[in-house]
Design a protein that fits this description.
Blueprint lengths: L4 E8 L18 H12 L3 E5 H7 L8 H9 L7 E6 L9 H4 L4 E5 L1 H10 L6 E4 L6 H10 L5 E4 L3 H9 L5 E6 L27 E8 L2 E7 L11 H14 L12 E5 L5 E6 L9 H6 L13 E6 L12 H7 L4 E6 L11 H7 L3 E4 L4 H5 L7
Parallel strand pairs: 1-6, 1-7, 2-3, 2-6, 3-4, 4-5, 12-13, 13-14
Antiparallel strand pairs: 7-9, 8-9, 10-11, 10-12
Bound molecules: NADP nicotinamide-adenine-dinucleotide phosphate (NAP) and zinc ion.
Amino acid sequence: MPHPYVLLSAAVSLDGCLDDTGPGRLLLSGPADFDRVDEVRAESDAILVGAGTLRADNPRLLVNSAERRAARVAAGRPEYPLKVTVSGSGDLDPDANFWSTGGEKIVYTTDEGAAKAGDALRGLGVDVVSVGPDVDWLAVLTHLHDVRGVRRLMVEGGGRVHTQLLSQGLADELQLALAPLVVGEPDAPRLFGPGDYPGGPRNRLRLVETRPVGDVVLMRYVPTAPGTGTVPSAADHRWLALACELAAKCPPSRTAFSVGAVVVAADGTELARGYSRESDPVSHAEEAALAKIEPGDPRLPTATVYSSLEPCARRASRPAPCARLILDAGVRRVVTTWREPDTFVAGADGSGLLAAAGADVLVLPEYEADAKAPNRHLG
Ligand SMILES: NC(=O)c1ccc[n+]([C@@H]2O[C@H](COP(=O)([O-])OP(=O)(O)OC[C@H]3O[C@@H](n4cnc5c(N)ncnc54)[C@H](OP(=O)(O)O)[C@@H]3O)[C@@H](O)[C@H]2O)c1
Ligand SMILES: [Zn+2]
């Protein structure tokens, strides 16, 4: 179920607020940061805000720079990104700036909200899409990807929307502009509210950039916590992509696959990584990675093994195949992309072996080409 790259963007006060409680919008960023946001918008296929932000701020959500719009058009893209909002109630003001400015607009709502939104927005050329009795974010993201062709989605709030996307493991990146002011009000809207966030409070997002922009500081983070069971998180994609990159480091072989593997704790800590033939001429990636972890490490039972190729179920070179090594290490979650072909062993079914022992096996087929790339010579 592919969906767009989801970038959460917000400006926050030093006490974590998105706004104050007064009427009108509290300006947290300065001109330099608004220009940075304009650039991020111009790079996006769609921009999403919740209906609460439409009501509170009445935003236009445009690309303001004429040069950036011209560059979009020159690249064969629409002048403005698609504008997206989400509303359970369907209670939307047709006079809001959102509808009368920019390019195409779409509302995701519920069966109940669809009639109300359809009535309110009649004649405005807005696409009103019901995703069922509730607004399910996976359905929204899948529709944006499959039906509207959105590959890069910028989410500009508010707090309820950001909280759901991060806690459901659906955010690929977080861009925060930290503003040098304190709101100080107990009821001011917060960036993130209570929720069951992947990896819990011990999970640390990875900081990938900090940069002063005027008097605010831009911080970019990527999530690191694996998903649960067979439900993927955005970080699952990132770790699996890393496993595929590691496969390119394998010493070449005509008689064995080139595979990469990473073992990650539930809180997003990388425990080990490995690749085929890393430690000796016949070692496998999962074996090489697991060998670097102390047996009985208490993090193993809730860890995830990412492997570019499904762990092997049979193997001539060693007594235990990787599926068995993973189970013996106590790991019960495996994420992979490429099911083992019959090139070297007939009827290999590592996923079946793992699943029969109660492990969750998640296959993300979108990385299969990356996993196969270092193995092209094996035909
Ligand atoms: N500083 C910043 O960068 C920034 C950016 C944006 C917003 N803000 C601030 O954030 C505040 C607004 O935030 P907010 O949390 O109140 O609003 P929000 O997150 O923008 O929107 C919440 C609304 O979205 C709809 N919605 C979201 N998830 C849903 C779901 N799973 N199912 C059904 N409906 C869903 C609901 O609409 P219905 O009510 O129609 O059902 C809900 O009331 C404002 O004060 C604004 O100024 C700040
Ligand atoms: Zn193996």
